[in-house]
Write a structure and sequence with these properties.
This protein is mainly alpha-helical. It is built from 4 helices and no strands.
């Protein structure tokens, strides 16, 4: 589950970044080729989950993200068709611009939903990590173990802080790497 949630966070952050730049590109009459992508939602696996709250949170999150995916897919399909018509000069630039800006507004609503769900994904990830540390083959003799299936508010708070620190550090390293590549590319272009 942690792997899937990390993947969701990565795609959600990428999508928000791309959506934030969409309006600026299309408002100039350009085609935006770096489009957001849907989240890789798969059927959740509950067999190793013992905490009913985590199971419910995971189910609710997947349902919400599935709905976001459906909306995003519809918007992207409409934009691809619009862009194809514009590139083939089947529609005038003003019609492209009007429709692209309508789609930009819908994408911005998707970005707001993704930002709101980002915290839910982080909280669920923190719960999962905290519970995983309590789990071991020796205390799994019973299907339901209160020792391994519960988490206190303090434990969640500590795990959320650790997770936030890890995410911030990863973002810092990624930004430094991107900046280094951009500087190298600028030097090569000169």
């Amino acid at each position: 589950m942690e792997y899937r949630l990390n993947g969701h966070l990565a795609v959600m952050n990428d999508d928000v970044y791309l959506i934030d730049h969409f309006r600026g590109v299309v408002s100039k009459g350009h085609i935006h080729y770096s489009l957001p992508r849907t989240l890789g939602i798969q059927d959740p696996e509950y067999r190793d989950l013992l905490n009913l709250e985590v199971i419910n949170d995971y189910f609710a999150l997947n349902e919400t993200l599935r709905k976001v995916n459906d909306d995003l897919e519809n918007i992207l399909n409409a934009y691809r068709k619009l862009a194809d018509l514009y590139v083939s000069r089947t529609i005038p630039s003003q019609e492209y611009l009007t429709n692209a800006l309508l789609l930009a507004a819908r994408l911005e609503a998707i970005a707001r939903a993704l930002r709101a769900k980002n915290e839910d994904v982080r909280r669920l990830l923190a719960k999962s990590r905290a519970l995983a540390r309590k789990d071991s083959p020796s205390n799994r003799k019973l299907w339901w173990s209160t020792e391994t299936a519960s988490i206190t508010a303090d434990e969640l708070s500590v795990e959320m802080a650790a997770l936030s620190h890890e995410i911030a550090e990863t973002e810092r390293k990624s930004r430094a790497e991107i900046d280094s590549i951009l500087v190298t590319d600028e030097k090569a272009a000169q």
